[in-house]
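Dear all,

This email documents one entry for the complex benchmark we are building for the journal club exercise. For each entry we list the sequence lines for every component of the assembly. Then comes the predicted three-dimensional structure of the complex as a token string, followed by one or two observations. Please use this as the template for your own entries, and keep the labels exactly as they appear.
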Amino acid sequence: MYLVNDIIAFLAANLILSQALGTSTLFVAADSKRKLVGTACCITIFTTCGSIGAFMIRKLLPSEYADLTLLLYILMIGVLYVGFLTAAYFINQERFVNIRKYIHLSAFNCAVIGTLFTMDQKAANNPALFTMKEYVRFGFKAGIGFITAALILTAAFRKLNSSKVPSSFRGGPAILIYLGIISMAVYSLK
Amino acid sequence: MNERKTSIFDGILGDNAVLSGLMVISPVIICGNTVKTAEALICTFSAITFLSVLLGSFVPKKLPYTVKVIIYALISSIVYIPVREAAEKFYPDSITRIGIYFPLLAVNSLIILQSEAKFFRMKKPRMLASLTFYIIGFDAVMLLTAFVRELLAYGTIRSKMADVNTLISGLGEPFGGFIFLGLMCGLYRKIRSIARKEDNTRGDLNVSGK
């Protein structure tokens, strides 16, 4: 029963299905299964590592300079962006060209920045959540949520792009309606 | 070949950022359910995007792609600070409602991806004109979505009661936003394909009448 509750809570907190964060990235990555999974994994790494940086920034930044939060988050993600590209290059130079495009697609998008701000909002409402552990947990959970949404989309991707769908609705519009129906189901679980 | 000549007006109908490119759709889905919120988003989105792309156009083109993208994001996050202050004065309630979607406007796809792929390949006057029409295209979709959703979901227009008999409350929720935007995208594509067919037919007639 606990597992069912956890799954329901996990789906209800999904950033794509409940907050539409990262939907544009999902569409860009949706043209192939490989790209979709690669991008989703990269986003998970960004949200998890980014949440560590976000916690540090929130902790060190005096409240009177709160307006600088976005600027510092962008700077931190920029550092992660360069760091991941460098790491990918040195780890596997042959695969670097393939991995590079996932990193480019994942760095500055709503899913990553939105996760950091959502966590900030949650921590502001409940100070008990303002810990490194909670930030990292939330960042990882958000990334897994993106992977889940990507898998849900992958399951129907071919059918939504098939010739059976009217040409005006084929692809993007059909995917949006499909995500809307899944989102409705998730909404009813709340 | 079915190649079409691009126009500076493409951002409104031919290649609308939201309906064609499916970019910047999160704010439309979540915040585009009341006209007042939409107005606040439109003003801030327009200011942030226009100023950021304009300033970004001065970044040297020779820099590596990654460095340029980081600089564009930094520029937009700097532009965001005064825009937020101004927005808080003009739309205090709406800004609170927009919440986390407000800072996300600073990392929208038009600034981060399209500026490099599209706008910075044009000459500056054409770039500014094209950018303006892309922004107007987003604004129009946002306003239309918010108007229809507010009317049908809450039975109001700008928080004033309207004479609507049947309300579809789900249209005000995120899933309603997804479905409504999907339907709008489909309708937009249909209209665009009809318009292009007519253009082609007219073009053929002109050629044959030469």
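Observations: The radius of gyration of chain A is 18 Å. Chain A touches chain B through 49 residues (CB under 8 Å).
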